[in-house]
Amino acid sequence: MTDAPATPGLEGVAQAARNAQAGAAGERGLPPVWLWNPPHCGEIDIRIRKDGVWFHEGSPIGREALVRLFSTVLRRDPDGYYLVTPVEKMKITVEDAPFIATRVDRLEGEGGEALVFQTNVGDTVVAGPDNAIRVEIDPATGEPRPYLHVRRGLEALIARPVFYELVEMATPRGDTWGVTSNGAFFPIAPPGAATA
To answer: For residues 139 and 83, what is the distance between their CA atoms, to the nearest angstrom?
Structure first.
């Protein structure tokens, strides 16, 4: 979907999300979707592709503000991902992680070094004990798939250029290479692997 008017179903969800966002702000100024238990209202044809692009009925959602709005009412439940408002809960499809970490900055503070990430939907996330970095290795290709915990079970896939920056920042701890942020060490290469 481009900048054309939204379909009534999509616009209805968008309006409910706007109302939820305006009515109750939780952590980081986000609606407290984890507190809401509305009835399940079915599925909406929204898919978040592996590259972080949001689609509705097969077409990209071209309005960044709409994607950002939907991202604020996204929740991960044991059986999948949902857009949740106080009055409805609509299941969507997420191919991998719902967000992409598109930038990282290394900052020095009183507590030591911190890695601050930006996501494609406008979130700022400081890696640390509550927002871990993890790396999965594809068993077939050996390629790393790095992730950052954003909030309440939602993760961002760390974009390849950002991951390369992390690799350049990595230091050894024993035979494992990793990065430190907010006092936590995150392995980013398997034991014994060279990083550069």
So the answer is: 32
Tens digits of residue pLDDT in 79-133: 999 999 888 899 999 999 999 999 999 998 777 899 999 999 999 999 999 999 9
Burial group, residue 173, by CB count within 10 angstroms (0-12, 13-18, 19+): exposed
Q: What is the 3-state secondary structure (H, E, C) of the chain?
A: CCCCCCCHHHHHHHHHHHHHHHHCCCHHHCCCHHHCCCCEEEEEEEEECCCCCEEECCEECCCHHHHHHHHHCEEEECCEEEEECCCCEEEEEECCCCEEEEEEEEEEECCEEEEEEEECCCCEEECECCECEEEEECCCCCCEEEEEEEECCEEEEECHHHHHHHHHHCEEECCEEEEEECCEEEEEECCCCCCC
Within 13 Å of residue 1, how many CA atoms lie on the same side as its CB?
A: 19
Residues in contact with 53: Cβ distance below 8 Å, sequence separation at least 6, in sequence order: 60
Distance CA 52, CA 162 (A): 15
Look at residues 174, 167, 179, 180 and name the one whose alpha carbon lies nearest to residue 192: 174
- The pair of structure tokens assigned to 21 is 């966002």
Looking up tokens 């503070």, which residue turns up? 109
Residue with tokens 């008017």: 5
